[in-house]
Structures are given as C-alpha cells and as structure tokens.
Amino acid sequence: MSDLLLGFMAIGVMLAFIILGMHIGIALIVTSFVTVWAMRSPEIAARFVGAAANDAIRDYLFGVVPLFVLMGMFVSVSGVGRDTFDVFQWLLRRLRGGLGLATVGANAVFAAITGISIASASVFTKVATPEMIRHGYTPRFSVGVVAGSSVLGMLIPPSLLMIIYGVIAEESIGRMFLAGIFPGLLLALLFCALILGLAYLRPASIYASGHAAPAAEQDTETWRSATVKFFPILVLIVLVLGGLYSGFFTPTEAGAVGAAGAFAIAIARRRLSWRKLWNVLTETGYVSVSVLFLIVAASLYSRMLALTGMPAAITTGITEMGLGPWGFLAAYLLIVIALGCIIDSVSIMLIMLPIVLPIAEAFGMDKIWFGVLTVVAVEIGLLTPPFGVSVYTVKSALNNPSITIRDIFAGTLPFVLVMVFSLFVLAVFPGLSTWLARM
C-alpha cells in the first residue's frame, strides 16, 4: 500500500473517530502514530511523537496562549462586560433596535480584551438577553443577536483562533492580530446595519408587540458615570493593543501586561475573592492545556501528512484540474463551513490547514489574507446546526426554558447570512485584511 493511500485512509479514520466522540487531539495523535508505524516502523513512529511533543510548544511565543486566556478570565469576573453593555445601552437608547446595537458594540469591545467567543456568549446572555426581553424584543431576536455578535471575539484581536492559525501557518501572530482589526469592525458594522434594517423595515421581526419598543430606561446614566464605567476598559485596550501594535510589546508581553491589568481591575472593583481567583486560575489551566495539547497533536499530524506526500499530491491534482486559485478558495471555504456543522473551530483548523496551506502558497495567496478568510468561515460554524458551539453556550447560560435551541438557531440565521456576505467581501478585497498588517 502506498504512503499516499495510507495518508488518505488516516484522514478518513480520524474523522470517523471524531464523529464517534473521540477527543480531537487523541484522534490526531493515534491516527498519525499508527500511519507512521505502518509506513516506516514503530521506532520511527515513537520518535515522531517525541519530536512533536518536544518541538511543538517549547518556544517562548507559546506563552501567549495562557496569558491571553488568563486576561479573558479576569475580565469576565470583573464585571467589565456588564459595564460595557450599560454604556452602549445608554448611548444608543434613542435608536430603534438600540439594545441590539448595544449588544453588538459591547461584544466588539469585549472581544478586544478577551479573544474568546464563548466568553462573550456566556457573559452577554446573562447581561443583554433579559434586558432586551424586558424592553419588548422577541426572545428569538434577543438570543440571536447575542449568539451572532459573540463571534466577533474570534476575529477582533486578541483572538485565540488567530494565535492558532499563526502557529500552524508559521505566520507572525502580531500581524495576524493587525489583520483582524478591519474585518472585525466591518463585521460589527454589518451586524449593526442588519439590526437597523430590521428595526425600521421589519419591526415585527424583532419586537414582540410588532412595533418599536419604548426607549430603554437608562436615563439615570450620565456622561460622568458612563465615563467612569468605560475608562478601565479603554485603558486595558490601549495598554494591550496599543503596546502590541506600536511594537513596544511582543504578543507574549502584551498578554502578560493585559493579564496584570485585568487582575488589577478585578481587585479594584472588589470582584475577586479567593475562591474566584482559584476558579480563574484552574479554568485558565484547563483551557491553556487543552489548546497546547491540540497544537502538539497538530504538529504530529502535519509531519505525518508531509511524510505521506499528501499536500504535494493534492496541490498537483488541483493544479491539473484547472480550478485555479478562485475555484480552490471557493471549494475550501465551502468545506470549512460544512465542517463547522459537525466539528468545532479549532479542530477544523488543525485538520484542514496542514493540507491546504501548501496549496494556497502554490497559488501565490497571501497567508495573512487566507488566515482571515479561514477564521471567518470557521466562525460561521459556531452558529450553524447541529453543532453551533455559541448557540449551545447561550442555551446553557439562559435561565429561560421557554427559549429552545431551535429558537436560538433561527435567531442567528440573519447573522450567518451577514457573515457569508462579509466573507465574500473580504475575499474580493484582500486589502481590507492585509494593508495594516503589511505596513
């Protein structure tokens, strides 16, 4: 049996393992180990595993993962999410759909200091959803806008998916962060345009009464109180992103400074008891170890694929098929979106990128632009059935059994369509993703 055929069989077996419920990291390691064993010998397979474990995460750069996760955890417990929503709610209180716009704006700001979509979905389900329902918005729209806008957390930097892509593609994480700024802002603006369009053209789709709800009851807020609430958030964003983009901090140093700043905010607000601190540290450990273990598994998987010669063979095959770069890109994005219906975001990137990156490079595609498109396509999977991680996160955080999973998926559908449109725009205009990163 040829090495190439073994490689294709390994991918099929690995996908079967994942669908049957095996952890993605275990599936990657087991199939890679067995495939190398079949191609060469058990000794070489054992050395492959050892080399992947030794080489994959020993670099100083990988400290960025636990540090940004720690910053996000401190931000979540400090009450910054609620304050951000309160400020946007007050600023947009006179507009139709104002609470929906406030949720998008607060999610965008929250994304700039956490980088984890699941954290955004969990926080704003508890903060924004009850407020919107209380002010006359339909439950379906209320949960839809929370789940839909939570995906901004994986695009607006700092982003965990951008870090993972940078590691796999061997691309600068700092440049990947820069590349996510305009696409993230574009997506947030498109979400706002969608909400305004629904509020003015089809109010029955978002208001339970079929017409515009009264202005939100936030007139007790003042410019002074809003500034006091927003100031710590602004300082943290400027400290982390400003230091990173000015070149004063490396990504790892920015993560450390951000974690320290978020810790100081939590302490200053008296939101961090010893029990909460322990929970934050243990949760950071769980998330970080999970991500780093996946990176180790992906390293072994990539080496196995290279040994089989599969990336080169697929590149040659696609070139001979005459699809061209645009045909390849369209097929790739469709596959990623389809995989998002059954597999989580990180798993999709770990499985697909080692195969498609050599093809993208063969077509002369910019890896930063390709990375932005990948993250957007992967994020669509957070909102699509049956997997929809953000949807299930919203459901688990809700204290309202009358709102079903089906309601949440239906509420996110308009936001999925907007994301597909934004994916098309970013594909047609690569400069939106690359010009800031290449400065």
UniProtKB/TrEMBL annotation:
<feature type="transmembrane region" description="Helical">
    <location>
        <begin position="230"/>
        <end position="248"/>
    </location>
</feature>
<keyword id="KW-1133">Transmembrane helix</keyword>
<keyword id="KW-0997">Cell inner membrane</keyword>
<dbReference type="GO" id="GO:0022857">
    <property type="term" value="F:transmembrane transporter activity"/>
</dbReference>
<feature type="transmembrane region" description="Helical">
    <location>
        <begin position="368"/>
        <end position="388"/>
    </location>
</feature>
<dbReference type="InterPro" id="IPR010656">
    <property type="entry name" value="DctM"/>
</dbReference>
<protein>
    <recommendedName>
        <fullName>TRAP transporter large permease protein</fullName>
    </recommendedName>
</protein>
<keyword id="KW-1003">Cell membrane</keyword>
<dbReference type="Pfam" id="PF06808">
    <property type="entry name" value="DctM"/>
</dbReference>
<keyword id="KW-0472">Membrane</keyword>
<feature type="transmembrane region" description="Helical">
    <location>
        <begin position="6"/>
        <end position="39"/>
    </location>
</feature>
<feature type="transmembrane region" description="Helical">
    <location>
        <begin position="254"/>
        <end position="272"/>
    </location>
</feature>
<comment type="similarity">
    <text>Belongs to the TRAP transporter large permease family.</text>
</comment>
<dbReference type="InterPro" id="IPR004681">
    <property type="entry name" value="TRAP_DctM"/>
</dbReference>
<dbReference type="GO" id="GO:0005886">
    <property type="term" value="C:plasma membrane"/>
</dbReference>
<feature type="transmembrane region" description="Helical">
    <location>
        <begin position="284"/>
        <end position="306"/>
    </location>
</feature>
<feature type="transmembrane region" description="Helical">
    <location>
        <begin position="408"/>
        <end position="429"/>
    </location>
</feature>
<keyword id="KW-0812">Transmembrane</keyword>
<feature type="transmembrane region" description="Helical">
    <location>
        <begin position="326"/>
        <end position="356"/>
    </location>
</feature>
<feature type="domain" description="TRAP C4-dicarboxylate transport system permease DctM subunit">
    <location>
        <begin position="11"/>
        <end position="432"/>
    </location>
</feature>
<feature type="transmembrane region" description="Helical">
    <location>
        <begin position="101"/>
        <end position="124"/>
    </location>
</feature>
<feature type="transmembrane region" description="Helical">
    <location>
        <begin position="180"/>
        <end position="201"/>
    </location>
</feature>
<feature type="transmembrane region" description="Helical">
    <location>
        <begin position="60"/>
        <end position="81"/>
    </location>
</feature>
<comment type="function">
    <text>Part of the tripartite ATP-independent periplasmic (TRAP) transport system.</text>
</comment>
<feature type="transmembrane region" description="Helical">
    <location>
        <begin position="145"/>
        <end position="168"/>
    </location>
</feature>
<keyword id="KW-0813">Transport</keyword>
<comment type="subunit">
    <text>The complex comprises the extracytoplasmic solute receptor protein and the two transmembrane proteins.</text>
</comment>
